[in-house]
Amino acid sequence: MQLTNRQLFILSYLLNHTERISGEHLASQVGISLRTLQSEIQEINRKLDKGIRIDASGRRGYIVQGVTPEIREELLDQARDRQSLFMPEDRVNDILTLLLFARDYTNMEALANTLYLSKASVFRTIESSNALRNVVTISRTRGMIIELPECEKRQVLTKVFDKDAQNPIARELKQSYVHLDTLLRVALINLFKRHNYAVSGEALRSFRRYLIISILRDKQGYLLEDVDHNLPISSLMQEIAAAVRTIVGVVFSPFEMQDCQAKLNSLCTFLRDVPTHRMEWLPVWEPKLRLFLSEICRRFGIDLSMDAEDRQRFLLHIHKLHQRVSIGHHESNYHKREINRTYPLSVHLIVLVFEECFGFPVPETEVSFLAMYIAMKLRSHAKRIDCIIVTAKNPSVAWPMKQWMEEHFSRHLQSVEIVEHYRFTPTMVREDLLILTTGEDVVLSCPQAILVKPFRLEDEYDLIDQCIQRIRNHYKESLFSSSLARYYRGMEPLDAQGKNLYGVLADLGISMGPGEKYEFVLDTDAFLLPRVHEGAGENSIRVFSLPNTVFHRGTELRHIVISDYYTQTGEMKDFYDCLQTLLLPGRLDSMQ
Q1: CA distance linking residue 541 with residue 283, whole number of Å
Q2: Distance between CA 463 and CA 456 in Å, rounded?
Q3: Cβ-count burial of 147 within 10 angstroms (0-12 exposed, 13-18 middle, 19+ buried)?
Q4: Nearest-CA neighbor of 300 among 366, 352, 376?
Q5: How confident is the model over 139-196, as pLDDT tens digits?
Q6: Closest alpha carbon to 533 in 339, 299, 320
């Protein structure tokens, strides 16, 4: 029985509930139309074994029939093997939203019934989620409750609650949320424009959501504690509060004004739109940035020199990040696992050096945001290739081609040289050389050359770009093969039956607990543990495959990758380039 991810989600959702589920509700949970759901149900029934089927009875909804307890567990095990399709983040958000809007303890059974899940599924979700484990208090007799200050509850709800949320408690509030969102959207845009306060669309949306959560909580009697950040209330915030009072009829207390002002200050802004008088953060953070860059150069031999604009942009991000951290707020990052895999060196440098140089800890979700600035500097230092233009025409014709190539591909090209056709010899051909020519005879003698028209290079842009990428990728693969022979120590199977990730690591002699270190959970169902050692040693990359997958933070882990780098080898860039390529989607599977 081969079910698609969507079909397995539909089946497992029904198996987790013993009563009929309406088609409208099931379609909304899956995120498809009712007609598509009906087609998927028919396809599932065609693939199911004889005797097991999803029954649809008029308006009563869907239920799975003919399934024994043993078969039910077998089917749910298949679904757990592909846990990502369960949308674990959405499930965590559903539980958080329900508990944050509950005034008292909620027992496990009531929570499970409300979310159409089994109690075991709810318990597994809480156990595997740091976000839930850290905030949910569980009592054997009374149930579960989130005991946080109201200001922290509002910040959490800003991340997990949206007008598109599907859980029942969110649906009860959805009409109010949508109404407020419609009323405030245009008003906030106009106010931000009038004050020349340029923020990203996501930042403005986050602030608007925070205002709506504050208004909803205020209307329901969830009062904000005495919060005073000692911040001056800006004219923009005063006008926002006046707009809320006029449009919605809610008057913010002085403490809510302080809370919203702190949120407003933390929004990501664009450097080019920051007035000079609002750049007081430059002299505060610049010495710490110099220390940060010098430490990376001293300890790891990596030069991350930045020009003035790049430096200011990075410092502005750090300034806003510090404002967020000081009020206990941080941005959500749905690309964190992909960034962990794509730029492991940059992320690890932030983890290793940032806090000791800048003096404040970085929330886990924001580490990879900082790493992107480092990653782009490292990328700008990547190897460039040489290009020659072989021509039999007048040199004045080839000269515009040279300038055009330098203008359009300067990031990829080390040099561009014009070579007369009679000087071109086979000994000049290299695998890492881009060859353009205006003569067909050169193409016949050198298949690597690209035939172009001198004054129509724009038409050949995609072809030239593809050729450059092919040369760069070939170079990377050659470098990866040699690096793999040096660093890779093979793949070993590891028994993980009945263990969590920390238990598996303990078997490997690695002591690690929840929250002790930054966790490199990757988007390829793998866990990376990069380690840097002072001194000399043998750099190595070890991979462990898990025949019995380990469920960790919403992901079924199938591989654990442990890298050990020694600083005196001076090979950090090459070492992490090898690691980065090894972590590409599908690469670890192909190594087995």
Answers
A1: 41
A2: 12
A3: exposed
A4: 352
A5: 888 888 998 889 888 888 887 776 555 555 566 677 788 888 889 999 999 999 888 8
A6: 299
Among 1.20.1740, 3.40.50, 3.30.1370, 3.30.70, name the CATH number for the domain at 385-468. Answer: 3.40.50
Going by the DSSP 8-state scheme, the letter that residue 49 receives in this structure is: P
CA distance 223 to 246: 21
CATH code of the domain made up of 276-369: 1.10.1790
* DSSP reduced 3-state for 548: strand
- Measuring CA to CA, how many Å separate 29 from each of 21, 65, 115, 168, 526? 11, 21, 10, 11, 27
pTM, to two decimals: 0.70
Q: Concatenated DSSP letters for 180-242?
A: HHHHHHHHHHHHHHHTT--B-HHHHHHHHHHHHHHHHHHHTT---------PPPPHHHHHHHH
- Domain 88-147 adopts which CATH fold? Arc Repressor Mutant, subunit A (1.10.10)
Q: Can you tell me the distance from the alpha carbon of 43 to that of 328, in angstroms, rounded to the nearest whole number?
A: 48
Residue 587 pLDDT more than 80? yes
Nearest to 325 by CA among 213, 229, 430: 229
Pick the CATH number of 5-85 from 3.90.1010.10, 1.10.10.10, 3.40.50.300, 3.40.50.720: 1.10.10.10
Instruction: Give the DSSP H/E element, type plus range, for residue 313.
Output: helix 308-326
- Alpha-carbon distance 473 to 584, whole Å? 13
Which of 176-180, 379-383, 521-525 is the most confident on average?
521-525
Pairing of strands 385-391, 413-420: parallel
* CA pair distance 85, 558, nearest whole angstrom: 16
- Angle at which helix 168-194 crosses helix 235-247, to 10 degrees, equals 130
Q: CA–CA separation, 74 vs 258, rounded Å?
A: 53
Backbone angles phi, psi at 486, to 5 degrees: -80, -40
Largest CA distance in the chain: 90
What's the rounded Cα separation, in Å, for the pair 269 and 23?
44
Give the tens place of pLDDT for each residue, 79-92.
554 433 334 456 77
- 413 membership: H or E segment, kind and range: strand 413-420
Query: In the structure encoding, which two tokens stand for residue 338, read together?
Result: 């992909």
What is the C-alpha to C-alpha distance for residues 27 and 38, in angstroms, rounded to an integer? 9
pLDDT of residue 83: 39
Q: Which fold has domain 168-267?
A: PTS-regulatory domain, PRD (1.10.1790)
d(CA 428, CA 420): 13
Tally of CB atoms within 10 A around 24: 12
Distance, in Å, from the CA atom of 395 to the CA atom of 454, rounded to the nearest integer, reads 11
Tens-place pLDDT, residues 289-299:
999 999 999 99
Tokens matching residue 64? 């799975």
Residue 476 structure tokens: 């990377």
Residues constituting the chain: 592
Contact 401, 393 (CB under 8 A): no
Q: What Rg do the C-alpha atoms of the chain give, in angstroms?
A: 29
Half-sphere exposure of 496 (CA within 13 A, CB side): 24
Residue closest to 337 by CA, chosen among 161, 158, 501, 526:
526
